[in-house]
Task: structure prediction
Amino acid sequence: MATGTSDDLDVRRLSGSLGAEVRGVALGRATADDAATIRSLLLEHMVLFFPDQHLDADEHLAFGRLFGELEAHPNLDLARERPEFFELRAVDGTGGVADEWHSDISCQQHPSKISILQAKVVPEVGGDTMWANACKAYDELSAPLRELCDGLTAYHNAAPHLAPEKGWIHPVVRVHPETGRRSLFVNEHFTRRIVELSEAESDLLLGHLTRWIQQPRFTVRYRWAAGTVAMWDNRCTQHHVLNDFVGERVVQRVTVMGDEPESAVPLPRWEPHGSRTATFWRDTEMRRKLKTQQAATPAS
Result:
């Protein structure tokens, strides 16, 4: 059933920083008009929760495709019928648990844009997920620190997924392509170091920024129920699973392909620190420019 506008839905804010619970739409039968309404709500609230949906795999995939091209997870086994649809299982905190703060797949040139996850089985106790508002975290930095961060880049890689060779350099502060807001784009899971700083300086600033964004005043915490669907904007949020649960936890997810993060100011503002980092930075820039040129060249 089409929603028409957000006024037709029951939308309840969950915290002062981000998050809303939405009722009044069946995601398994969602239309393009529904998707436009939901996209508007997502830009406003950053993470949305839809209770009592109980989507099957085909419905989940169809709903995700309303928001763009879906992508497979680059660090999981994709030898299955639907590589864009994957399931994570964990028991008593052991298994597929994303228990560090992160923005999905920030180690790629084009990190994930929107993630859409459904809880299929919830544990007896615990297993909540938290999200943080990366725009608010940026806004509340002091002006001098915001200016410094605007001009920095950071190296992200997939070392936590046993693939350290998969990595990319992104701005520390990215600009949301739809809202224009700036947000911190470093996280404790994928971000290894700040390119323009020495190792000691990078550890100090990166540690401060990743702890800063985790403050409770920037976050929302959600208690799952089976059949609840969550969708979040990875361009302006981070999330973290509380690995405190007792029992089985099964979630299913599809992910909308992202775009390359844009910086708040022209980069590079400063040279990379150290020859090894500088070499990688130049290599990454060359690969990025080459792919851009290839995409712009008409096929013969």
Observations:
- The mean pLDDT is 89.
- Residues 94-292 form a domain with the Double-stranded beta-helix fold (CATH 3.60.130.10).
- The helical segments are 32-45, 57-65, 134-139, 143-150, 199-212, 275-296.
